[in-house]
Amino acid sequence: MRRSRLRQAGVSRLELRCGTVSDPRESFKDAFGDWPTLVSEAPGRVNLIGDHTDYNELPVLPIALAERVRLWLRPREDGRVRVGSADFPDAPESFDLGDPIEPRGSGDWRNYVRAAATGARTVLPDGVRGLDGWIVSDLPPASGLSSSSALVVAVMHALLELNGAGLGRLEVAVLAARAERFVGTQGGGMDQAAALCGRAGHALLIEFGPLRVRPVSVPSGWCFVVAYTGTPAEKSGRAQREYNERVASCRAALDRMGEAIGVDRALSYPALLAQAALPDLLTVAARVLEPRHLARFRHTVTEATRVRAAVQALEEGDPGRFGRLMSESHESLKGDYGVSTAELDRLVTVATTAGAEGARLTGAGFGGSIVALAGPSALDAVESALRQAVSEPMADTEPRPGARVFPARASNGAVVRDAAPGDPAAPAANG
Ligand code: NG1
After folding, report:
1. Is the bond preceding residue 24 a cis peptide, omega within 30 degrees?
2. CA of 360 to the centre of ligand 1 (A)
3. Nearest protein CA to atom 3 of ligand 1, as residue
């Protein structure tokens, strides 16, 4: 059964690897019968502040991580795309770029490959080059660190480069953000922009409508520590519904605010914030919005203000202020936005009790990770307190083998490079 499925997919010797071969080039050769010639790599990201703002066209401040998705690949002239994964050796993907591409079932990783191909196709002529690809990732999946967008960007960037599409990074980021909605989540554009525009040693102030990215240097001695709870925030099923509900609530709140202040329904959040001072907008909101929409609205507009203040704190080298903004952001995501969990709250408290300047959940929430800012004197204590905490599940949870704690190293963005024999699979650059 398994052999015939693999043969059907045209991926002949995949069963030979099955976790026994660790060199990705060997795995590729086992799967496809030849060596890879290129690697397309795209980083995950940790968002320092500004969550659930991107789909409202309000700013975010992530850093691109050293941890990334690598797609080892070999171009094909026949427009076919065949992709296997080190993490899912039994489920290779295979389709023609020229055929209709339908989504697979909800939560299937192969939908991200399909999303990337669907997006790339919109800017490519007929008769394009496809690829054989083998995915290796050191990003924990569904951890709030954007492994899904890294996969979409790695595949899309490869297809665009192979076919000489000649797009700039911001254009690819916009295309990838739109393409990823193929999986059913109405996401914003932060993750794809971070994956493409990451800069070693820098955070990225990302703004939308139109997309802009400004790297902001991270002062030496500031260490952002990531702690993954080990509880995935799967963006299929409940988390996807919850996420999309928030996108819709923010839109409804914006429409109602537009009516209340006499502006048409096509108003954007940045335009609304330019109309009046924040306290005045919050006074109007308290009068006209129903309680749930009011809470979502309050998080959205106050979070945008916190991002601006955090950029200033970063530029002025004020970790205390930056940390306080992170902690305020967490409270807002927990209270007004309802996306935190008991585990995330616990890790935030552990980090700040151990001496972090501040800490918050990062990404969409509903599980996933936190990020904490620690200065040099508190770093060891914060890391070891978090390590201890993630190794001890809370009373009502199962053991979480994937949980981990690591320092975020601000790194460069996506690159398609030669897969020269002997080339180590190391990150492109780290800060
Ligand atoms: P994560 O945490 O990677 O699922 C999601 C969205 C972002 C952003 C954040 C919350 C996607 C691909 N990503 O990220 O656009 O809205 O949540 O800030 O939907």
Report:
1. no
2. 15
3. 146
Closest CA to 429 of 418, 413, 406, 408: 413
Amino acid identity, residue 269?
Y
Which of the four CATH numbers 3.90.1640.30, 3.40.50.720, 3.30.230.10, 3.30.43.10 does domain 2-207+411-418 have?
Answer: 3.30.230.10
Contact between 100 and 117 (Cβ < 8 Å)? no
CATH number of 223-408: 3.30.70.890
**pLDDT (tens place) for every residue of the chain, 431 residues total:** 333 333 344 443 333 333 344 789 999 999 999 999 999 999 999 999 999 999 999 999 999 999 999 999 999 999 999 999 988 878 899 999 999 999 998 889 999 999 999 999 999 976 689 999 999 999 998 899 999 999 999 999 999 999 999 999 999 999 999 999 999 999 999 999 999 999 999 999 999 999 999 999 999 999 999 999 998 887 777 889 999 999 999 999 999 999 998 886 678 999 999 989 999 999 999 999 999 999 999 999 999 999 999 999 999 999 999 999 999 999 999 999 999 999 999 999 999 999 999 999 999 999 999 999 999 999 999 999 999 999 887 766 666 778 999 999 999 999 999 997 655 454 443 33
Distances (CA, A) of 82 to 28, 43, 117, 139, 182: 11, 22, 11, 22, 19
The residues annotated as belonging to the active site are 191
Query: Which residues form the pocket of ligand 1, taking CB atoms under 6 Å from any ligand atom?
Result: 51-52, 54-55, 144, 146, 148-149, 180, 185, 187-188, 190-191, 235, 363-364
Question: How much distance in Å is there from the Cα of 257 to the middle of ligand 1?
Answer: 25
Dist. CA 235 → ligand 1 center (Å): 9
pTM, 2 dp: 0.92
Specify whether the CB–CB gap between 299 and 307 falls below 8 A. Answer: no
